[in-house]
Amino acid sequence: MKKHLKHHFWKNTARTLICTLLLSTTVPTVAQAGGLTEAPPAGAAGAVGGAGAGATVPAAPGTLLSKSPVTDAIPGLGNAFRITYASTTTEGDPTTVTGFLIEPTTAWQGPGPQPTLVMAPGTRGQAEICGPSGARSLIGDFDPKYGSLNINYELPQAYAAAAKGLRVVMTDYMGLQPHAAQIHRYVNTLDAAHAVLDAGRAALKAGDLPPNSPILFYGYSQGGGAVAAAAENLPDYAPDLNLKGSFAGAPPADLQEVIPVIDGTAIMGVLAYALGGMRIRDHAAYEAVVKYFNPHGLEVIDQVAHTCVPDMAARFGFKSTREFTTDGSNFADIMAREPEVRAYLERQRIGKKPLSTPMLVVSGRYDDIVPFAQARTMAENFCKSGGQVFFFTDETLPVPGGIGVNHLAPKSNTWQRAMDYLIGRLDPAQEVPVNCGAF
Q: What is the value of pTM for the model shown?
């Protein structure tokens, strides 16, 4: 028995380490804390404005509230700034969001005026330290109190885009910053959409650019959902933005389809992220779930709120939500029983509004975290409402174990395809590729 338990422990530990390494393979090693210095905070010398992150401010959505240089950023790859900007929650309440901006040192050689690329990050966690702009040197950080490890694994792509001459802004989303007004509501559709759209507005203001300057959206995984949500909400929320095109990779568009797949994988802890976010204002749905939870399950919701993805995967990877309930039900079982939960998840579904701008959607046929079928359905729904959509299927062969290989591989495989597609949308002479009805 002891031999079996020991084997089981090391098997799970190895699988979790593999997943964590996969998340960070494209990121430079985090420098030692002693060699790093914090960028000037909002309101300090060199900053514009002085509103604190998460504070309630009487400012129009997209207003730039602060801009301070990242003095310890990687040199020679662009001039980086941390920004704070005004936005609006799902409920219409004013809030502030943080992020970072890279002004390229490479001249834009593409068609038309220099574009601004808004990057919506993939899942980072729920702790305040997890936001991309909160990372030291924009690379990473560690909170010894909770063991939270922030790895800005999409920073290389942000710099790669800047090397092409694109201005790049990456949002932290709402709640992923120190002293945030509320916890990050993971995969809350309108929160994410507003954060992305207002990042675009703020980035233009940060560069003193005309409001009709070209904007592009890029996002994968959580970011893919945020981009798709932003694009479909553009006409209602930010019609002033001149969005030319979007890339939405592996979007979790229908959470009712995602939940059964992600449960038991390396990052199953994201289900607790979603519950923690529900607890803030969606009380009926939250209570409909946690009435089934045992004390351990309730503790997990509180514990993951202080984690970023690498440490969350190390602590909770490959568990089943059956371990968290009094009757052995998993999250999918509860969802099937509880109409309040299904109604909440339906409110988050993406693809219910028509697109007004072109979009490339990518999904891996064997994605082991965010299932292929629901991403394709989102693209089909956009097509049915008249959207200009191209859907691309990544055919990476299946790798068993729920470690996320088939979720992460398409991101690397399609980076150049995504950039070529987005830059192509800036050329009015280039035909928009559409394959609606053929995927």
A: 0.89
